[in-house]
């Protein structure tokens, strides 16, 4: 029983095998991709392993504190695709191997030509609550 | 009657009500749903209109739900199956099927997380929402986890004797999950283990109960006001619950007297030795090392060997602890944290600080990350003074 974040981002990971930008897909391929993600989430809910997931808008703003009584400073937006976080999903699974298996399945979402994208996803464990028994 | 009393009563009645439905011929999955409906109904109705016979009320309401559902299913399938509308006369069989439910819900065909969820619902009488909140997953996900678990055990005969070890593993998992959510899972695990101990005479059941009681006794002392974890050595022992400790020790001694040692009894013995020390430096580490040796024979768990190295470090000095540690696989969880601690005690704060930082990066829970980071910061601050 451990929670993992499946993070879909483009920050330093190698290029996907089927690396064609989404706007070069056919509309049907885009629909098929979205449907795959939806089916994946539904299937995980049925197996009792789904916690949550969202897609993120591509444009973000950097914000930081600028001292007492002053409004926060913003910078950006930066829409460079190399920095993009596209979305995330949280799963709750019995084993690390199961988390790997599911990440692999998600990475097989279809893209251009209806072929799996083989895109790199980042799998990160959540920090848990401390166990009751420690010694 | 306040809502809190109601809920504990409800939970304690759940398994016997479920057992009665199954004995009347309902299949386990449908009966379990019907009992859950009756529980939800009771939570709604009882505060204003408490029944004179709570168990009878639950059996009646659950049985009615079961019949309604069965009729709806029959109609849907357009079948002619007939189910007796009237329950058998009398208060129901005097047989208590609670033990069978423990075995069924911990059946080895279930994954740990589904066995835990099913046990909490069918034996513990918690609602799906409460279980979902305790494990921080959506209610819909938890509902699916439970119904899949029920499908998995649907072919298992209800009257088959099970393996008590699987039940104990499930209860241990519930206890160890701790205190997230509004249901205290540790307290619930203790309640379920007490109920189990009342129904089966087994030294390891007693061992697990003792282990839980001895750890639960430290609950208040192990958490600082800011929520951070207080290590055993630094806990205010005046805040330990002496009544729980006394009970735990008594349960453990009775179990050990039967001379059928198991891993939970050995773990409880270690907890009892800690409980016995008025101050951290009065701890009988030599005996604790001996118990870890016993435990290593029983489980061969790498975590046990790691904890043994800590105990050796306390009993025979940090050098001996480091030597014991050196024989273990350095990829074990908490290996680096133990190494950091032993190096500090060995008078090497530079290595210790570096290892604490490394250990914090590898730690798997928030409290430990905070603790290890503070240790590194403490040593670094001392050096820069």
Automatic annotation (TrEMBL), chain A:
Coiled coil: none annotated. It comes from the Bacteria. Residues 4-107 form the YCII-related domain. Pfam families: YCII. Belongs to the YciI family. This is YCII-related domain-containing protein. It comes from Glycomyces buryatensis.
